[in-house]
Amino acid sequence: MSQQTDMTELHWLFDMLQHIDVGLVVINKNYEVELWNGFMENHSGVSSTNARNRSLFDIFPSINASWLQQKLDTVLALRTPIYVSWEQRPYLFPFKSYRSVTSISESMFQNVVIRPINNANGTVDHLCLVVYDVTDVAVNKAALSAANRKLDQMSKTDGLTELNNRSSLDKAIKLTFDAYAVGNSGPHTLVIADIDHFKKVNDNYGHPAGDVVLQDMAKILSGGSRRGDFVGRYGGEEFCVLLLNTNKEGAFTYCEKIRKQVEENTFKTNKGDLNITVSLGCCELGKQHSSIGEWVESADKALYQAKEGGRNRTVIAE
């Protein structure tokens, strides 16, 4: 009766190993397969009969042999398990994701545990590789990271123009002012640009046309700026450009280039083509500015002078 019970339990164990939803591979010291369960059969397409007594590296020639052999030899020598996370290496065995229709990944992400198998006399000459399918976890984490990056980008970006928003602009101005105040940088010039008679665009052509003008204006400002410059939407039809390592003469050259480009550009909207102009005020940061507010106000006053002087011009704050 005891022998029959042992045989039944052995049958149960064997059946469980074959149908458990993890991969089980037992190899000897020569890396030859001695056990290959149903999970491995289903995902590799290699039957246990064909896998048995073959080198693991013959079955999967794409596996990084030197990397895995080092892991296997370490487990044999130290008799201590090793855990390989999908975050370290997405997968060990090149299996396709069986949820590829609903998953963003074509490959199965895997966690792998390499365990020593002790013989009755305490020696170790076999290893067991346990393979867990963690594709759902990996894909969900990737989706969450992408969503967080998107949210972070949205928190810094103006939705209409895709430029830096006011909050990002204020932070950049503060960092620049603080660095200059302790003598760590300079010169820097702040530019405020305002579309002339923009209210008439909205009144006569509608807000959708006005939005197109704002978007095209943003492209002109971005396209005319250098990699290190900080371009943002200040509010309404006003834009702000922080020209780092640029004095007022260099800023004037930049502003005039932008002004002429806007003047010569045709803004195409669903209500017809538009021609607009822009006024710009700029101010180089100096020791006379005791606060950020004074620096911004100086640039704003220069813009006001450009408006009062007839618009479509650049004024440098003195």
TrEMBL record:
Pfam families found in the cross-reference section: GGDEF, PAS_4
Domain GGDEF, first and last residues per copy: 186-318
Cofactor(s) needed for function: Mg(2+)
Catalytic activity, as annotated: 2 GTP = 3',3'-c-di-GMP + 2 diphosphate
Listed GO biological process terms: cell adhesion involved in single-species biofilm formation; negative regulation of bacterial-type flagellum-dependent cell motility
EC class name: transferase
Protein name: diguanylate cyclase
Originating species: Marinomonas communis
